[in-house]
Amino acid sequence: MAIPRAEIETKVSEVLESALGADAEDIVPTAILTEDLGAESIDFLDIQFQLEKKFSTPEKPFKIEQGELFPENMMSNPDFVKEGKFTDAGMKVLREKMPHVDLAVFEGDRNVKGIAKLFTVKSLCDFIEIKLKK
Amino acid sequence: MRWMWIDTIVAYEPDRRLVAIKNVSLAEEHLHEHFAADGALPAQPVMPASLMIEGMAQTAGILAGSVRRFREKVVLAKIQKAEITADVVPGQSIRYDARIERVDPMGAGTSGTIERLDHRTGAWEKIGETEIMFSHVDQNMSGLAFPEHNFVFSDSFRNVLRASGLGHLMD
Questions:
Q1: How far separated are the first and last CA of chain A, in Å rounded?
Q2: In terms of Cα–Cα distance, which of B35, B50, B130 is closest to B89?
Q3: Of A43, A52, A72, the CB nearest to B102
Q4: If contacts are CB pairs under 8 Å, which of residues 81-140 in chain B contact chain A?
Q5: Cβ of residue B75 closer than 8 Å to a chain A Cβ
Q6: Domain boundaries, position A57
Q7: Helices A121-133 and A5-20, interaxial angle, to 10°?
Q8: Shortest CB distance from A66 goes to which of B80, B105, B140?
Q9: Is B34 part of the annotated catalytic residue set?
Q10: Is the pTM of this model over 0.90?
Q11: How many domains does chain A have?
């Protein structure tokens, strides 16, 4: 049975409160995990592990594979990133692997330093919603 | 001094659980400062809670390292939770019971319970809980390069593993 969006949002919010020590009122859909909620690199792994726990059921484990939620092992691949910017091939992979992030604004810039800004509270909720439908 | 805050490993379940013991002794210099006599207040030696967290981090870190046969450089990355509700005094023993919650190429999540043994009664009593995350630093997202040599699992760690009958894990 599908989980209603409101329940996904509540659970994601609980994970972010726990993993980042963020205040509930700051956890809004547009909040960026790094800039607005103070996430650092290890927090992404913490968030991943906590989401798995939160959305797993005895009947259906919820396992997030490496690189499924946040892009990993892409930055050091010269086919995907050249001179600090995502190549066309890199953008194609991002579009395929990350349907939960809004790449529209990123298309123009493509700077790897900007990638963290794509991960908002909404993108996490979208990720869960898409994954649960699979 | 050697930065070892566990004395021996007493239980090991591959990829799941590792239990270590720390005996607290008045021979440990730091206990005489924590807390020294102050005016009318007598000395009150207690094991610092911060060092109990270190002891659990070493226990859970060895467990996390053992999953990949100590090939990864496993470093303490985040303490999500550390609650210690009672003091441990010289003559008592501490048991760190660490469990793996999740391992990923990037790192590991662990949970643990801390217990103390009063040798007068022979009873173990739970006095704390932890949740600690470790990063496999060579896999970290920042792309920093670290030395080839595994500086995390030093000779001191290897000696504890060997003396606990777990030397084969390092082969």
A1: 12
A2: B35
A3: A52
A4: 101-102, 104-107, 109, 133, 135, 140
A5: no
A6: 1-67+119-134
A7: 130
A8: B105
A9: yes
A10: no
A11: 2
Partners of residue B74 on adjacent β-strands: B136
d(CA A118, CA A108): 13
Q: Which residues contact B33 (CB under 8 A, 6 or more apart)?
A: none
Query: Would you state the pLDDT for residue B143?
Result: 57
- The ipTM estimated for the assembled molecules is 0.81
Q: What does the domain layout of chain B look like in residue ranges?
A: 8-29+43-170
List helix spans (H) across chain B.
49-67, 155-163
Task: Please judge whether A46 and B80 are an interchain contact, meaning their C-beta atoms are less than 8 angstroms apart.
Answer: yes
State the pLDDT at residue B144.
Answer: 62
Mind listing the pLDDT tens digit of every residue in chain B (171 residues)?
578 999 999 999 999 999 999 999 999 999 999 999 999 999 999 999 999 999 999 999 999 999 999 988 899 999 999 999 999 999 999 999 999 999 998 899 999 999 999 999 999 999 999 999 999 987 765 556 667 777 788 888 899 999 999 999 988
- How many residues appear in chain B? 171
List the single best residue of B102, B110, B142 to mutate versus A (max A Cβ within 10 A): B102
Q: Measured between beta carbons, which residues in chain A are less than 8 angstroms from residue B80?
A: 18-19, 46
Residue B46 contacts A where some CB pair is shorter than 8 Å: no
Which CATH number among 3.30.310.50, 3.10.129.10, 3.90.550.10, 3.30.1490.20 corresponds to the domain B8-29+43-170?
Answer: 3.10.129.10
